[in-house]
Amino acid sequence: MDAYQDATRRGVSGRARLQEHPFVIALEECSTTPVLGANDVVSEFLSTHNKLDLPINLQVLNGRSRRIRDLEVKYLPSEDETLQRIYRHSGSSVNWFRRPYAKVYLVCCDNLADYKKRARPRLRELIEKNDRLRPGGGGDGDHALSGSSGSAANPLIQLTPWLVLYLQGASNTPQTQQQHKKVFQMIKDDFNSSKYSSTAMYYNSASTGAASGAGLGGNPMAATAHKGKADRVCQLVIKPGNAVDGWEDLSRLLGDCVKISFECRLGAYLSEVRNLALLRRTPGWSFDHFFLVKGSLAHMFEQAHVYEEAVREYYELEVIYTDTLEAGAGDGGAETSGNFGDQDPADEEAFILHPSRKNLRSLCKRNEAGNSGSLKEFDVRQYLFAKRALLMLKEVWAAAEDGAGEQAIRQKRHELARLGQQFISSFTRKLQRHSFRAEFVDKWVFSACLQLASVLTMNGEGEEADDAVGRAGTGDRVLSGILADLYIYCHSKLLKLGATLSLDAKRSRRRQKVSKSMIFASPKAPKGSGGAEESDPMAILDDGACQSFEEELILMETEAAVAAAREAAVMAESAIHDAGEDGEDLRDQPRGSMEPGSSHPEATSLSCLESREGYNLYVLSLAREAAEACRRCGRERQAVQLEANNSDILIQQGEVAQARRLLEQQCRLYFEDGWLQLLADLALPQLVECQLKLGDRPGLLSSLSMWLTMKGELEGAAAQKVDEEAIQSALEDLGGKGECSTASAVDLHGAVRVSRSESGGSDLKVLAQKNDVAVLAFTVDSLFPFPVDVKGAAVMLSKHKGGEEASIAPTEWVYFSRASDTNHLRAFSERLRTGSAPDAFAEAAGRGEGSQIAPGGNVMFAAVLCSEVGKYQPTELTATAYGFQFRCGLGEDSGLLAVSEEEPRVTMAPRKGEIYQLDDQMIAIDVEARGEAFACEIGAFSRGLAFKEAWAIREGDAGPPERLADAGARGGVDSPLYRLGDLRGKATLVLRVEGARKAAPGRRDGALLDCELSYTSGLRRTLARSLALSAVAPFEASVVFHAAAEDRTLVELRVASALPWGVVARSCELTAAGEAVSGLFPSEDLLPARLAPGATLTLLYELQSRECGKLEVELGFDHEKGHGAEPGGAIADWAAAMEASGIWGERQTFRGEVAVPAKGPRAVMSAGGDLRLGEATTLTWRVFDGEIGLGYEVRCEEGLWVLAGQTMGTVGKDGVVALDCIPLESGSLPSPELLLGGEGASGGKVTVKPPGTQTLNLTPVG
Hints:
Layout: H1 2-18, E1 23-29, H2 40-48, E2 51-52, E3 56-59, E4 65-68, E5 71-77, H3 81-89, E6 102-107, H4 112-131, H5 149-152, E7 162-168, H6 174-191, H7 209-215, E8 233-239, E9 243-245, H8 247-278, H9 287-303, H10 307-330, H11 337-340, H12 360-367, H13 377-401, H14 406-433, H15 438-456, H16 477-500, H17 508-516, H18 537-542, H19 559-568, H20 612-632, H21 636-644, H22 647-652, H23 656-673, H24 676-694, H25 697-711, H26 724-734, E10 746-747, E11 752-756, E12 767-769, E13 773-782, E14 788-789, E15 791-801, E16 804-810, E17 813-818, H27 822-834, H28 837-846, E18 852-853, E19 856-865, E20 870-881, E21 884-889, E22 897-900, E23 906-910, E24 914-916, E25 920-941, E26 946-954, E27 962-963, E28 965-969, E29 976-994, E30 1007-1017, E31 1019-1032, E32 1035-1045, E33 1048-1057, E34 1063-1072, E35 1075-1076, H29 1083-1086, E36 1089-1091, E37 1096-1103, E38 1110-1119, H30 1132-1140, E39 1147-1155, E40 1162-1167, E41 1177-1184, E42 1191-1195, E43 1201-1204, E44 1208-1210, E45 1216-1223, E46 1227-1236, E47 1242-1248
Parallel strand pairs: 1-5, 1-6, 6-7, 7-8, 10-21, 12-22, 24-31
Antiparallel strand pairs: 2-5, 3-4, 8-9, 11-13, 13-19, 14-18, 15-16, 15-20, 17-19, 20-21, 20-22, 23-25, 25-29, 25-30, 26-27, 26-29, 28-29, 30-31, 32-33, 33-37, 34-35, 34-36, 34-38, 38-39, 40-41, 41-45, 42-44, 42-46, 43-45, 46-47
Pfam families: TRAPPC10_1st
InterPro entries: TRAPPC10/Trs130 (IPR045126), TRAPPC10/Trs130_N (IPR056913)
Domain TRAPPC10/Trs130 N-terminal: 228-394
């Protein structure tokens, strides 16, 4: 087919060049010495200067003008046979356009004498002979008009403008040059004079010849008259070296002559055409003559490169022809098939781009001799369209050469393409109305579409287009869409012809079905939109109404187009349509004959029907061309179907791999668009056939998946089209062999459906922290009738960032299980929840479990280590089966995995952050799990400490403390690990510790406790902490001294418990300088005493001297079992641990030292009588060890006492301070205070009783 299209393009380009007939310029020699032929310089100059350089403004219809450049001219000597033949036949209006458009009189002489004697008489004779042909000049001359009466009466045709060209030879001397100048000046004086002005052979650029000549209402020469002299003489100067000067003047004068002739003949032609058109209802009127005259006018426009006006003439000719046919039918000559044309086999090949295929102008000329009525409408309409199409194509080429914009060039191409579509559509209907055979119509349409498509893809000179409409183009979607329609139309007709001629009986009908489906909407389109969307696709394709599918691809000719053409025409009856011939007298050429101007036979598209091989090649080529055009205009769906429809031909030719590729694309489109019946009936079985031949395991799995997905929607025999067992056997037998059709993963479509599981794993994590192992559970429903063993399965997670999908991360572990095996699912789910997920998956893989997708329902567990914070959407499941990778998408309900910043999963902290200086004690560590921690093991280590026992007290557990089992020693460490088990929420770990007596008190680093907690939370993790404990004394001892007399001091010993559990004080001994201090009360009366946490034991001793620097305290005590523990109180955990431990029955000793303060002033207070409310009583303070002149101040709480006396002063020599005091309230009142000096103020406490009783209790004063 490519060869045919290339030949068509070359033929069109050749025919366009053949129609480039230049304007004829007649050359007449006036010298005694011949110039043409004898002077090679002049002959070569004229042969190379055949285009007029200067632009010419030609006046055309209705005052419009066209600026034309590079008009071609052809110089013919007067004795030339071609020119003589033109003169002989120029009397007919059919050949007016062939007449010379100018005469050039050549003069060559060396001096004035030669010019005067020989050249000038001859020149005047020739000019006067030419002038006798002017209007009103009289005489018929040699070129008197002949032919129709209308043309003979038109004087404008006789005008042939002339000019004199002086040929100046090379001058070697100044005298010779001077002679040439004199000769040239004399020629100008002779023939530029006003004598020749009235002949109207020349008029200046300001005159309007065409407008007045076309009017035909007055003297046609009035507008061409020129007052004064006219410039009609020029020269060519031959210089040494054979260089020639003077072309610019000659080109200008020739352009003026051509302009005069063109506009005069245009007026004559318009007059002739109008007269013939007005007379078309006259009996004996011949359309053949009108056809020739109108075509000649169009050809004259074409000579002048005014292609638009030439196209308009052919439009008008088409309308007149249609009107003539209608008039003939109305007079009783009804249209018949014979009048329209014969169904000659030679006419099956269209010639819509070959106007000379049947030379209608030659037929018309013979008809003028009496053979009227031999023109057939079948030939005329194709001829006229061919002429119009070639002109429009030349207009496109001219616009490209002139540098017109890309948009303008595209618009012209679009006009040509739409005109071709309209013509093929309307002419096809004419053939059908005239009962042409269906095979004849199909062949004509096939060849016509192919010819039009070929010419639309060429730039010029027969070359294929390399712009937006060529194969490499991408831009012109409109033209690409038209080309796609043409190729699809052509392809459809060829398939139909193949079925008719038994070239493609097996699959032609099925391919036509698929071809027709390309114009219908997808069955998945919204309902209620009407049309084919609401009908069954197969019913639509089988319906006879689909036979009009091809016509819908072609733009229909409308009445509006005809009306617009009528308005544009010159005459009221004119409309738009086709074109005429170039006037070449060529004989009819049968199909396959020689192309004019070509040495190669004309190609024919119908040769593809002569053999099955040729037919198949054309079917494939047409499908390829149509597909490429569809892709360029955005119709990818049609492109895929067009290519895949011919897969059976490719299979027959052994190109199975290419057929498979095309069928895969077609099946995918059918599947996505919902053409399931077509998919099951044709495309999918054929695809499976190719895949089986190629051993394509991925393709087989994809086809089987597609089949299983749609199988439930098929009915009847269509549901049995694919052999599932054969595919299964092929997959298993091929193993690692066979060819893979694609490197990408195979899409399982709906054969395996994956969604979020609502059971079995519903409590697995969807919210996770960084470095967590998130376990997701999915339901996997498999439609495969056999189990599929998979490897390397992973669920792909798409990470979202600000609404945009970012990185894709796979899960690291996947496990499959049958949904019906609930016990196994429950066990594995619990194992994942409470243990290490990687270990659980590894153990299952070691047992050969979890790698098979069973038919029916399955549950899939997928785990991923969350390494980055963000939100992750499960998108698809990927795995490897049968040696290649497959994929299946996840629905929108697949859930979302949210990973947040990592927070401490488990925390550890000491209960008080302290360790006591005891040989045997308890320490508590608070442990909290945020979430769940499984299989916890905890241990502690510190240098110098020994850990004996451990108990756990869990939050919310009302039972006794849980003694933890020993999990064994850690490597290199003496201290054991204790099994804490599963941890939820908070727990307190209580450890029994020995060896803390020597810890340095008051230092934060007194004991560094290294704790380690191992637990499982998706992964096995270890939390290690170094806890800094402050070493503190278990008891705090303090003393208060009371001056009882000058030589006797009472010592108040206070011992406060710092332990968090209760103790029993068994003994207490106070020594000073190694000697025991006697107590005021026997110890047996006070001890043993129970001390709750924070309680204080107070004992009184009498000290005779304060000369010692310190006092030593030794306290013997026991840990008490549960003393001081209230249910839910702060020491409940300690009490519970003490209850469970054996530490509570062992005696311990605490030793400490108390510093004795330095000796200073002391005072003893006494009351002078009973204290009664509202009565004055004297309070006396006796001061000891004070210096004389020691200052004092007495204070009391306002509102309780009234003081009378000197409340501030100095202590006298007697050391006594006395004041009267009146108590204002009854009860126990704080006594007034005596402040001595700056420090060492003394005070007391007086208890005031109601009247009748009084008691004085003294509190420490110093």
